[in-house]
Amino acid sequence: MTPSWLIELPECDSTNTWALAHAEALAHGACVWTRSQTAGRGRGAKRWFAPPGVLTASFVLVQPSPLAARQLSLAAGLAVAHAVEDLAPRARVAIKWPNDCIISDRKLAGILCEHAQSSERVVIGVGLNLDPKWEQAPEQLPFALEGTASVAECCHADKAVVPSMPEMLAALRRYLIEAAGLISADGFNRLLTPLRNRDYLHGKQLQVEDGAQQHAGIGAGIDGEGRLLLRDGATQHALSSGSVSIVGPGEDARRFSRWFVVGDRKTRKRPN
What pTM value is reported for the model? Predict the structure, then answer.
């Protein structure tokens, strides 16, 4: 039986577009999902390609705290990481500011957060490579060859069963709702430590383009407003937005750990 919170569309151009158009009628925790998204959107003018096996869904949350989109994206990235690691224990998911999830230097998921107009509702779009069938979409192979990861490959490495899309949707929803609750109670600062523990860019040599401006330096973490910290000699910049390129390995290869306690389950340290 389909749960009441799940709205499955046979096909749509973009789940985020659909959810934004119907946001006022959707409850906290509602999820809009399709197996056939024809015009997925990423940050800016970027597209999100979704052949069969790519999970494309948008979650609606009532979030009275006035968080910027970048903060919501980072919080959602933590939720994606935790959900994936629950269902594919071999996975080790890092967060690449501002809106990507990474496994072994390859992109696993992208996140697009948008505020509904005249409402406290936010829409969190997730595009996750669950078990993508790139061979069924040859025009999208260049995208795949750029370096994508999938949940399926982590499961296959353990000879485990790949989770179904409904299973993954339920896990994502649970952690997104929990993250929203933490933020409402304690603000974004509650997530800073787990975010920094998973920060993919920390210690790497970066180049950041933000419109006509370009910055170069070493990734130095994430601040309390969700901005990327970039160290250039004795100067440190706090960047609110931008397109990030990694131009060198840098100085840090830190491990990362679980990001918050769920129920009575203890936080677990990742092995070295």
Answer: 0.85
